[in-house]
Amino acid sequence: MIFDKKRFSELLNKAKGDRSINNFGRISQVDPGYISRLLRCQNDTPPSAAIISKLGSKAHNNVSDIDLMIAAGYIEDGNDVNHIGDKLEESALSKERTEYVLRELVNKYNIDLTDPRTVETLEDLIKIVHRKTQE
To answer: Could you name the domain of life of the organism this protein comes from (predicted)?
Structure first.
């Protein structure tokens, strides 16, 4: 697995869209200086899975964290998506992605987290989403 800096830079620029580096960094919670270095192909090592997850969760132009993972060298090709967990040194992607999906569900469906029945259902959802991200 090889970090394709050029391809990663191209995808990251596409993911950034017409937003400034500072704005993209702020909303994705990734240091803008680090994003800038990635865009200028100045890093010889790929970003961590956690950073890729943050960038992918706020990406524009249909760029996904999976696209970024492939360019970073964590996944060999698009057919290898089911084996992400086997190839990562960190489990942060799954945790970050699970949290992101759950936040989106809570916001989209106005889920009341103060209702105990909802919390129990949400815990079941967490288990399902986490299991799916591990597959």
So the answer is: Bacteria
CA dihedral 102, 107, 112, 116 (to 10 degrees): 0
Alpha-carbon gap, residue 132 to 58, rounded angstroms: 20
| Whole-prediction pTM | 0.60
107: its two tokens:
């916001």
Do the beta carbons of residue 102 and residue 129 sit within 8 Å? yes
Residue whose entry in the numeric block shows the structure tokens 């970073």: 72
How many whole angstroms separate alpha carbon 34 and alpha carbon 11? 15
Half-sphere exposure of 39 (CA within 13 A, CB side): 18
Distance CA 54, CA 30 (A): 7
CA dist 27 and 33 (Å) reads 14
Q: Three-class SS of residue 8?
A: helix
What is the per-residue pLDDT across 85-135, written as a single tens digit (0 to 9) for each?
Answer: 444 444 455 566 666 666 666 666 666 666 666 666 666 666 655 555 555
CA distances from 58 to 40, 62, 64, 97 (A): 20, 10, 9, 12
